[in-house]
Amino acid sequence: MHHEINTLSLNLIAAGDGASHAAHNVPGWQTGMFAFILLLMILALAFEEKIHAKKSIITGVFAIVSLLIAAGCGLLPFGPVINAFGEEVKMPVYIPAIDWSVIAIIFGAGLFVDVTSQSGIFSWIAIKLTKASGGDPVKLLIYYGLMTVLFSAMLNNVTAMIIVGSLTGVSLGKLKRNNLLLGFLLTEALLTNVGGLLTLISSVPNIIVGKTAGISFVKFFLVAAPYVVVATGVTLWMGMKLFKICGLTTDAEKAEAAQLVATFDENDGIESQRFFNFCAVIGVFFILALSLQSILPLVDQLGMGFVAIAFAAIVLLVFKHEVNRFYSTVDWDLLGFFASLFIVIHVMEHAQVLALLGKGIAQLIQLGDQAGPAALTVASAVASSVTDNIPLAAMLAKILSAQEIPGDSPFWWSVIFGANLGGNITPIGSASTVVAITIIHKQKLEMSFGGFVKTAIPFAAVQIVLAMAYILAAKAVGWI
Fold first, then answer.
1. Average model confidence (pLDDT) for the chain?
2. Backbone angles phi, psi at 249, to 5 degrees
3. What is the pLDDT of residue 390?
4. CA dist 245 → 57, 237, 380 (Å)
5. Which residue, among 307, 278, 302, has the nearest Cα to 290 in the 3D structure?
6. N or C, which end of the chain has less CB nearby within 10 Å?
């Protein structure tokens, strides 16, 4: 899954040789048992509607069960941890397991969007884009698809999905095209992970693998950009075909759409021009802060989660006497889902389930420079679809480094493409697809775990096949 770097997890080191030893020497039957637990959780999420339970409840139960069994097996590093200053810190073992940066991004970005939407700015943007499209659904999908890719590359896929998803609902509602909303949202969700490939800093797996392989920012962009352009075009085309999003063909349709669009007034939802202007300015600074976070003094250490919460706090000052109504709109189920999912994945790391996957993938390297990269791309994608791609990418980077794979080898790119694109296979494969499903359900649209997989598989398959072909072609012409 595509998440920000968990600085707490990286800075806190488990104390005690016994705990570390236990974490790295796990009996095979225990690893198999936890792999079975992970499979059960995935199946439970797949049948979420059948068992009438929210995602947070399902993953929460599995987090509790996993922690109890892992504690009984002696797999968890209990005891004090050492922070970056060499100080001992006492905390529950599951606290550093949670990627708090992702939680902060979802919480802060969600609040920021909710508050700024009161200004009418999202309606304004949506209507402007709708007018530019002339009411043509195909043009609107293209505009929104390109915006999704750009936001995912500049910001992160969670924030991109929150913002673009909000705009999509407004635009299609204005056009009375709510029947296309599901197709739009799913296409946008699948494009967030394509956009996450554009630059070295667009996703954490890019940073981890790119740094280990010694790939520069410019090199990464030059190699990834052609694929992103092609994959974006193909994904948009598939979205139009599979979701039956058709353009306006007859003069009558165009005239009717133009007449409908002409009645739209982007200023209708603006109650206070002053508040609108404030939100427009703060929105630009929000995007700039997220885009430049990695190079801004102090902020580069505090992370994107800090930026999201800080800007949410700034806009909440406008409603300082009635902030409770915004807190009540926070998607606590989504936050609970991610927190408990991180805990389950953390336990799976200590149980060596991820290492088991890594050993299998290491065998793929032996297949050679032709079949090897293709097989590794598929394996990385499949593994990423059901587990956190940050530890997965870190583990695979260590394996490639230990094998002394040169930095210009296609294997590095196989991990990068696979880890990112695997998020499009399942609704828990990336944070943005989870957010998309949440938005879909808020819009009273039906989409189950199995329904998402069935719908997304053709897209993911094409994107992954394109990635395999592109990696081999780029290697053949000397791009990598």
1. 84
2. -110, -45
3. 66
4. 36, 10, 32
5. 307
6. C
The enclosing H or E element of 82 equals: strand 81-82
Give the residue ranges of DSSP H helices in 263-331.
273-292, 299-316, 324-327
For 34-81, how does the pLDDT look when each residue is reduced to its tens digit (9 = 90+)? 999 988 987 887 777 678 888 889 989 999 999 999 999 999 888 887
Residue 39, Cβ density class (10 Å: 0-12 exposed, 13-18 middle, ≥19 buried): exposed
* The Cα angle at residue 353 between residues 347 and 359, in degrees rounded to 5: 145
299 with 307: CB under 8 angstroms?
yes
d(CA 434, CA 431): 5
Instruction: Report whether 105 contacts 6 (CB < 8 A).
Output: no
Amino acid at the residue 377: T
Residue 204 CB burial class (10 angstroms; 0-12, 13-18, ≥19) = buried
The letter for the amino acid at 35 is A
Q: Give the pLDDT score at 381.
A: 92
Nearest to 424, CA basis, from 465, 455, 379, 466 = 455
The CA distance from 113 to 111, in Å, is: 5
In angstroms, the CA 12 to CA 87 distance is 10
**Low-confidence residues in the chain, pLDDT < 70:** 1-24, 49, 155, 201, 357-358, 361, 388-391, 394, 402
Q: Do the Cβ atoms of 391 and 354 come closer than 8 Å?
A: yes
Q: Are 158 and 109 in contact (CB under 8 A)?
A: yes
